[in-house]
């Protein structure tokens, strides 16, 4: 016979699968001898069966009846009895905490007669009626599915007994049945209602977001009610074994005298600090502190606790490993190591990369919560305050005079780079986490909120209009929260980040930075994955190195073709003859060589993977419409020629057009120029005794033939530079795998590649057929809300689809070339969840923007445990 019911005394915290988290913890406290109001748990198995078949298991009724009889015998009272009636709470509790997502029904057992008995037994008539009123309300809503408003329509009244009559009528009118006076019926129906609440819309949505499997089901905890609202010698509270905000040791919490638990949760009355209980009821306080020590010892972690004091008797109602801030997580984990409670491996499991990332940036002070002007995609974390400007030139101009500015655009293009560098933050109304603004801002560690579609950006009128129609002119000060994805009017107060300072300078200033340093050191000692950075400038490279990067996994050379160099690129692409093109390429060569020399110097002794140019063409050519207007109004020969050329090269879908390796194959001399610049930079570094480790990476390859041709050219140029310089220039030549075809033919491609690096941004874009620039802001919100995506596939790697392509490419690439070095340099390289996947898939390294390097080190360490 399957057991569906366990008394608290029969379980333990290792039984969370069966008893749910709450039930397992109640059992644990009971086993430890703590004063837990007695009760029993109906298992998740019973719920699963109910959900699968629409009926509870046959044996359940009898098992609940037995458990109830035993409970009544134990406490010497009858459920809903006429003399000091026993009342029960019925609460959901799944394996993973789903706060507030499922149902709770309190005061089961009350009815027209027992309410009088309760009033008599407690001497509190009003509270007895109020409890009955609450039962009717919860039961009506949860068990009978009556709209909650029907119970809220009744305003506050002085007479809860009258409200009871009103609510009974609501139930009668809505269902045609009377509220059941039979306590057992109330109980059974409440249990079923809790089962059903597993599949409520909000519970399903919560699970999809939190990656909680849908098939676990909830347990149901049935427990003797105790009352904290029976006078000054009663009360209720919550307690933490350490401060969940800072992690400091000590006893923290709130106490509410003469009140019930819901009053605390609902914030109906002001609580007093827990220490006050010591004054009010020293015996209960001392017991509570002792129980807290017992629990922390048992759980080896911060516990949070709910308790009630009923006429001077302390009851423990709930405990669990407590939620905490990022700061507290690091401090507590390392404190527990010092206290010899856990080891460093376990400490590493107690923190996460997302928490570290949160600690790295300045943030708005906690009390600075103002209502946001608008919401967008939290694309690059941190907090910034500044005056809004609408173009790059204005950003540069104002910043040069010492102003702090926020660059506001509909979306950014490579042309905006100087403005992005000058600004404190970037705000766009379009685009998602892999839009240009997001990727570039993240790379620079700039705050960025993008895709704030509620905002209207009018660059011509130089105004920003908020959804409430507030119109902000250029120069208006706003605050941008890149962690929360919000925009606020005015200057919110900023708090500095000691962890950010530590990671940048190595300066430790207290317990928190010590804890972060130790955790990272341990992560580095256990991780197998290398952590490289995506960086395009010597400054970014140097910063990445300070943050612990072990190389550059992606240097995007197209980022070096911007600003004043754009004219040269334009000339190169549009050149009508060899002479013009060579002139443009010759002018670019020394500039590129200097770029590479700087980066190789900053990363001396470490690999630097330089990717050949990969621009969507539109980003490098003048805007067709603007040019057409110019030609129509002030025609010049140059502009006319330019327009003809731009029209000739116009593409409706540049992301799938002449970019990546394709550009190198159709623009003669381009690959030669870039490879020569790399090779000559290597020689320059060798000449001064450096240890340059340049690698050449070819983007957007779809077939091995493309790679073969580029490789031949590159090898020829490397040989020429070697001959001419007298230094042997050796650069491994590899490819990005960022098209499904490349992944599926990786076995062939590996024949011509010294390494692979997954470009998961493009691989996601092309595998899903989703535009990385548009999709996040357009329909992703609807997809997330409907649970089709648990997270954006541009943020967290889609393991089933894109991940499968990655696995195939790793397997087939290494079948051709055992030991082939493989990394990833798409944005997923810095995403905690994806890093675990890359570890499991056998990649050699991940590469991410410099500011994500510390979190990536941490996650790579966790993945290795
Ligand atoms: C990618 O596609 O994942 C990648 C790293 O290249 P980019 O973002 O420059 O297209
Ligand atoms: Mg790409």
UniProtKB/TrEMBL annotation:
EC number annotated for this UniProt entry: 2.7.9.1
Ranges for domain PEP-utilising enzyme mobile: 403-485
Reactions the enzyme catalyzes: pyruvate + phosphate + ATP = phosphoenolpyruvate + AMP + diphosphate + H(+)
Cofactor(s) for this UniProt protein: Mg(2+)
Top EC class for this record: transferase
Record domain PEP-utilising enzyme C-terminal: where: 519-861
Keyword annotations from UniProtKB, A to Z: ATP-binding, Kinase, Magnesium, Metal-binding, Nucleotide-binding, Pyruvate, Transferase
Nucleotide-binding as UniProt keyword: yes
Pfam families linked: PEP-utilizers, PEP-utilizers_C, PPDK_N
Pyruvate phosphate dikinase AMP/ATP-binding domain segment(s): 17-53, 57-270
PROSITE patterns (UniProt xref): PEP_ENZYMES_PHOS_SITE (PS00370)
A molecular function GO annotation: pyruvate, phosphate dikinase activity
Homology family: Belongs to the PEP-utilizing enzyme family.
Name of the molecule in the record: Pyruvate, phosphate dikinase
